[in-house]
Amino acid sequence: DIPPPPGTAGLVMSPSARWQLPGGPTIHFVRDPIKLTISAYRYHLLDNDREPWAREITKCCHCHADDWRRIFSLCDWSCSYRELLQSLNPVSGVLVEALHSREQVSSMLANTIRWTGDPGVLHLSVEHLRADFWSTLACIDGFLGGGGLTEPLRTRLSRLR
Predict the structure, then answer these.
(1) What is residue 19's predicted lDDT score, i.e. its pLDDT?
(2) Distance CA 7, CA 60 (A)
(3) How many CB atoms lie within 10 A of CB 155?
(4) Which of 32, 41, 79, 100 maximizes the CB count within 10 A of its CB?
């Protein structure tokens, strides 16, 4: 939640509702809470190296203390988050993920409300990119004061799709 130094770009994955804007242009990606929760459930079921915390006993990432107690009481505090999800049916697993993601979703929604109308914040979603990838990138470019989507830049950006 520490902003980057003034005049530099930074990436904050899940800014809390207390996070202060860095004073420059900020792109705020907003996700549909239901889609985010289902996506997170599927992602946390995977055994991957990008989320080592999910393999640690009673460890969760960005969850509130009350939610932590509710989550790990389901296994008597003797499992990892991934093990817990793998032991549940999909409906129960998504409900547990909703508890796990509640703090992140609450912060995302609070920041959306807090920053609505702020000309220094561009709110975007994955749906914007799906609906019109190039127009969304042109919007980002304009917001950041770029020089337009030149053909060489379009070629490089096309690799992102």
Answers:
(1) 87
(2) 33
(3) 9
(4) 100
Secondary-structure breakdown of the chain: helix, strand, coil percentages, each rounded to the nearest 5: 50, 5, 40
**pLDDT < 50 regions, the chain:** none
Angle in degrees, 0-180, between the axes of helices 33-45 and 90-115, rounded to the nearest 10: 130
Q: How many CB atoms lie within 10 A of CB 47?
A: 10
Closest Cα partner for 33 from 140, 133, 125, 137? 125
> With the C-alpha atoms ordered 94, 104, 40, 82, is the resulting torsion angle positive or negative?
negative
Tell me the pTM.
0.81
Q: Dihedrals φ, ψ of 80, to 5°?
A: -85, 165
**Exposed, middle or buried, 78 (CB in 10 Å: 0-12/13-18/19+)?**
exposed
Determine contact, residues 45/85, Cβ cutoff 8 Å.
Answer: yes
What pLDDT does residue 115 have? 95
Determine the pLDDT at residue 18.
Answer: 87
User: How high is the pLDDT of residue 50?
Assistant: 86
